[in-house]
Design brief:
Number of helices: 13
Shape: globular
CATH superfamily: Alkaline Phosphatase, subunit A
Structural class: alpha/beta
Order of helices and strands: HEHEHHEEHHEHHEHEEEHHEEEEHH
Radius of gyration: 22 Å
Distance between the termini: 47 Å
Number of domains: 1
Mean pLDDT: 92
């Protein structure tokens, strides 16, 4: 039998009182396609309930609308350009990853005595698995897909590889029963982690990453037919003529062979996108219910967000790439912690993948790293103490992807968005008068002073975060990293 001294008993007692952390991320979720936003008629009752009981952020922005760099920014708490994590590592041109010896908040939490698990889309490293980043156990999307294949074959005698999806990126209904779908097998795995950790005497951290609703959208019944394409309202930006805009905007349409796409065709894709969202919301509901049934909901800090949005036909484009439209950079973000965060709508500007790291550490009572380690700002005092968040802007970046290298940086402030395109004309949008970003007013003389101030604000933020696009020398950057 082991005997504990009084100091060990005190430490174990305090650890038991530490909150659990459930971090839920999804892939390509538009802000306006969450029911709680009251913009589009998408049914997300479980996500809405998180928002009703927590803090809903109306001005949350991704640091970069690309899958892998956004997740790397989240895990290390820095803008991805700092490490050269510029685009997805599995696409054509080789690219840097965040080095393994960099700071990762996931490892930091594990080091404080938490049980840790990862479940879902692993897009943080192309070569290293979750165990290298602080997770005790994990099940990735490839493993979940293998189980989907197995269960579908056992139930039907058919292979998922034989399923035909004739519409490709535009999406199709999925014949796999809902209980065997990726969303619901993922939820089942996550609940298994929750239940196993609940039996132990330590707090837990579970990171759940849904690959949905990333295209191609293939929801199962009943979600495949939940929305009628004829009822889907056209995106406000669909009829963009791209006059006065950078060449890459129209080129993006050409790259996808979408020059002649009609709204009737795109509405079908949007209806499937809605259905995919409602399907993974249903899966999230099963996870939240399990927390309630096991009596863990009140002692669990729950974070819900995504890597970025989805054009999904807006500006006649699919997916993302080369543009900084609100469809892509404006994202849903919710933090719920019963009895610690009062239900509220938070209108301040936040960077979801950057601010969430110091915020989580503060709510978990874990000391933040010192020095120039994190680029985000903790929201703890704003949420728990009603203090004002000083930031009045949001900055996002883009660096290139499978169609080639094309860099841009954007800043949104006071209803305006400025986009610095390094190899083409810049963009300026008055979002109050032009919410769908159809008219580029970059040459409007009346906006000259505003433009100057936006450029200065953007420059200062990029300088603070050591963005190499603003011309810092290698020696300066290396010296700054020592601080």
């Amino acid at each position: 039998m082991r005997y504990f001294n009084i100091l060990e008993v005190f430490e174990i007692s305090n650890l038991k009182k530490s909150p659990n952390l459930l971090f839920i991320m999804c892939d390509q979720q538009r802000y306006d396609c969450i029911g709680f936003s009251n913009i589009r008629p998408v049914k997300t009752p479980n996500i809405d309930n998180l928002a009703k009981k927590g803090a809903w952020f109306t001005n949350a922005y991704t640091p970069i609308p690309v899958c892998a760099p956004a997740r790397q920014a989240l895990f290390c708490g820095k803008r991805p350009e700092y490490y050269g994590a510029l685009w997805n590592f599995h696409i054509t041109h080789p690219v840097c990853e965040v080095p393994q010896d960099a700071y990762f908040y996931t490892r930091h939490i594990k080091q404080q005595g938490y049980n840790t698990a990862f479940c879902g889309k692993w897009n943080v490293s192309g070569s290293l698995q979750p165990d290298k980043y602080g997770f005790d156990i994990s099940v990735t999307s490839g493993e979940i897909s293998a189980e989907v294949n197995k269960k579908y074959f056992e139930a039907t005698g058919n292979k998922t590889s034989d399923i035909s999806y004739p519409n490709g990126a535009f999406g199709d209904p999925c014949p796999i029963p809902l209980e065997y779908s990726h969303t619901h097998i993922l939820a089942e795995k996550a609940n298994g982690f929750i239940n196993n950790f609940a039996k132990q005497d330590k707090p837990w951290f579970i990171n759940i990453d849904f690959p949905e609703p990333h295209l191609p959208c293939r929801p199962s019944a009943p979600f495949d037919a939940m929305y009628n394409p004829s009822d889907v309202e056209k995106w406000g930006g669909f009829d963009d003529d791209f006059k006065g805009k950078p060449y890459m905007h129209k080129q993006q349409v050409i790259n996808w062979n979408l020059e002649d796409v009609t709204w009737e065709k795109m509405a079908r894709t949007v209806a499937l996108y809605y259905g995919y969202i409602s399907q993974y919301d249903d899966a999230i509901g099963k996870i939240i219910k399990n927390l309630e049934d096991t009596g863990q909901i009140e002692n669990t800090l729950i974070v819900y967000t995504c890597d970025h949005g989805d054009l999904c036909g807006s500006h006649k484009m699919l997916d993302k790439h080369y543009v900084m439209y609100e469809d892509l950079v404006h994202v849903p973000f919710i933090i719920r912690y019963d009895n610690h965060i009062k239900p509220q709508t938070f209108d301040g500007y936040v960077h979801n993948c950057l601010d969430v790291v110091p915020t989580i550490l503060d709510f978990l009572g874990i000391e933040k790293p010192t020095g120039n380690t994190l680029h985000g700002e903790s929201l703890y005092n704003a949420l728990a103490e009603d203090e004002k968040l000083e930031r009045d802007f949001a900055v996002s970046s883009y660096n290139g992807q499978q169609f080639g290298l094309y860099s841009c940086r954007s800043i949104k402030i006071d209803g305006y968005k400025y986009v610095w395109n390094l190899t083409d004309i810049d963009e300026l949008y008055d979002l109050n008068a032009d919410p769908y970003e159809l008219e580029n007013i970059i040459y409007d003389e009346a906006k000259k002073d505003l433009l100057s101030s936006l450029r200065k604000k953007l420059y200062d933020e990029l300088l603070r975060c050591e963005d190499k696009m603003i011309g810092s020398t290698k020696a300066q950057l290396l010296e700054n990293r020592k601080m």
